[in-house]
Amino acid sequence: MIVETPVDGAALAARAADLVTESAEDAIAARGRFTLALSGGDTPAAFLGELASRPLPWEAIHLFQVDERVAPPGHPDRNLTGLLSTLVERVPLPAANLHAMPVDDPDLSAAAERHAAELARVTGTGALDVVHLGLGDDGHTASWPSGDPVVDATADVAVIGPYRGRLRMTLTPRAVNRAGRILWLVSGRDKAGVVARLVAGDPALPASRVRRDRATLLAGDGAGALLQGRWRPAGGGQPVPW
Predict the structure, then answer these.
(1) Angstrom distance (rounded) from CA 176 to CA 115
(2) Is beta strand 34-38 parallel, antiparallel or unpaired with respect to 130-133?
(3) What pLDDT, on a 0 to 100 scale, did the predictor assign at position 140?
(4) What's the rounded Cα separation, in Å, for the pair 183 and 149?
(5) H/E element holding 220?
(6) Distance of CA 92 to the CA centre of its chain
(7) Topology of domain 2-227, per CATH?
(8) Are 103 and 9 in contact (CB under 8 A)?
(9) Nearest residue to 13 (alpha-carbon basis) of 200, 221, 230, 229
(10) Sequence spans of domains, the chain
(11) By CB distance 3.0 to 4.6 Å, which of 28, 39, 76, 160 could disulfide with 66?
(12) Residue 176 — very low, low, confident or very high, per pLDDT cuts 50/70/90?
């Protein structure tokens, strides 16, 4: 795992957008297409706003979701609500290139199967170019609660829960770990403890099921505070692998 510690939220957003832009340019040059799966939450908002300002060839970009809560369309609990306002509505992304998780379907299990098939169709191999992840204070990522069998799922998309009051649809570790690049964005000193556990490879964390050899962790605005002396900060030399 590559670990970088941007100083604040603005630096975190800019660095994440740089890495995604780099991956997009490489993928489009190689295959004419770039696939990106995005997580929800508060931390990604600045990153998505920064990404919206980049002059990317959006007609060649396909957006997926890492996970989604089962909630009414437009509800603030829906990750799609924030994704639309911070990114999709600000860029010329073709409507067919947004592959939202179909959580409005009354048969969620069948919808998850169809979504997995759509992922395979668009990517060709089932491997996304970049998967963006967050990290909960309880060590979850995507919608993988501690103790949930989703971490051992053999499908690419699964339905779990209720977790924190909502059923959820999520990419599974199988799908996430095929990605060409995995990009963690974690912000805030309150996440410092769980970040240190993730970097140490604590097997008790669901997030530790994510492969490390293709992962970059951006721990900004104090989230990397407990890593002091064990990393090189972004902009201060090359980051070191863990």
Answers:
(1) 14
(2) parallel
(3) 96
(4) 24
(5) strand 215-220
(6) 21
(7) Rossmann fold (3.40.50)
(8) no
(9) 221
(10) 2-227
(11) 39
(12) very high
Give whole-number Cα distances, 127 to 4, 34, 75, 147, in Å: 25, 11, 30, 26
DSSP, collapsed to helix, strand or coil, labels residue 213 as coil
Cα–Cα distance for residue pair 76/208, rounded to 1 Å:
28
As a whole number of Å, the end-to-end CA separation of the chain is: 5
H helices present in the chain, as ranges = 9-31, 44-52, 79-86, 108-123, 173-176, 192-200
Length of the chain: 242
Q: Please give the DSSP secondary-structure letter assigned to residue 225.
A: G
In sequence order, what are the beta bridge partners of 171? 157
Dihedral through CA 16, CA 9, CA 169, CA 207, nearest 10? 80
The whole-model pTM stands at 0.93
- Two tokens, residue 33: 């297409």
Instruction: Kindly state the average pLDDT of the residues 28-50.
Output: 95
Residue with tokens 């669901």: 206
3-state secondary structure of 182: strand
Whether 231 has a pLDDT exceeding 70, the answer reads: no
Q: How far is residue 60 from each of residues 49, 65, 82, measured CA to CA in Å?
A: 19, 17, 22
Sheet arrangement for strand 67-69? 67-69, 166-171, 157-163
Structure tokens at 86: 């911070």
Helix or strand holding residue 65 (H, E): strand 61-65
Q: Judge whether 159 and 112 are in contact, CB under 8 Å.
A: yes
CA gap 218, 168 in Å, rounded = 26
Tokens standing for residue 3: 């670990």
Place of tokens 């670990």: 3
pLDDT tens digits, 98-122 = 999 999 999 999 999 999 999 999 9
